[in-house]
Design a protein that fits this description.
- The protein has 3 helices and 7 strands; from the N terminus they run ααββαβββββ.
- By secondary structure, it is of the alpha+beta class.
- Strands 1, 2, 3, 4, 5, 6 and 7 form a 7-stranded mixed beta sheet that branches.
- β5 and β6 form a beta hairpin.
- The protein is globular and about 50 Å long.
- The protein starts with a helix and ends in a 7-residue tail after the last strand.
Length: 144
């Protein structure tokens, strides 16, 4: 691995950390900074009622939903980055404990994030995110 490849992979990992911190701290401007302006984000694996949409639309959706949670924390781990010039395919696992409003017990979920990153003049940005939920314990609203 050469120094440029190492630097690219570190920058992408930093973006994944910003994604998690943005959601967990309700800093949706930080969350948006991970993505290109036209990025497409797909959270439908969590529920068929959840949208697929562009970055700004999804930031509003997250703020209305997860922004109300008293606490939440995302662990993003086991990051795999396949670089191909100015593009990168990224697979990362997530674990997300959270306390949802009106629920006595915390909820927990886990799965995979599949990102398509591109190198932009502002650094590496995700232009597509698909979340693949694998499991959910104490899901708000019950099973779907």
């Amino acid at each position: 691995m050469d120094l440029q490849e190492l630097a690219d992979k570190l920058e992408i990992q930093e973006q994944l950390a910003r994604y998690a911190r943005g959601v967990d701290t309700n800093d949706f401007e930080l969350w948006k900074s991970v993505f290109t302006a036209e990025a497409v984000i797909d959270y439908t694996s969590t529920s068929s009622s959840l949208p697929v949409g562009k970055r700004d639309e999804m930031a509003g959706w997250l703020e209305q939903g997860l922004g109300r949670a008293p606490w939440k924390i995302h662990y993003v781990t086991n990051v795999e980055i396949d670089l191909d010039g100015d593009c990168a395919k990224v697979i990362a696992q997530f674990y997300n404990p959270m306390q949802m409003p009106g629920m006595a017990e915390p909820s927990y979920c886990g799965g995979y994030y599949f990102h398509d990153f591109v190198r932009t003049p502002d650094g590496w940005k995700s232009e597509k995110l698909t979340e693949e939920l694998v499991w959910f314990v104490n899901k708000p609203g019950g099973p779907s």
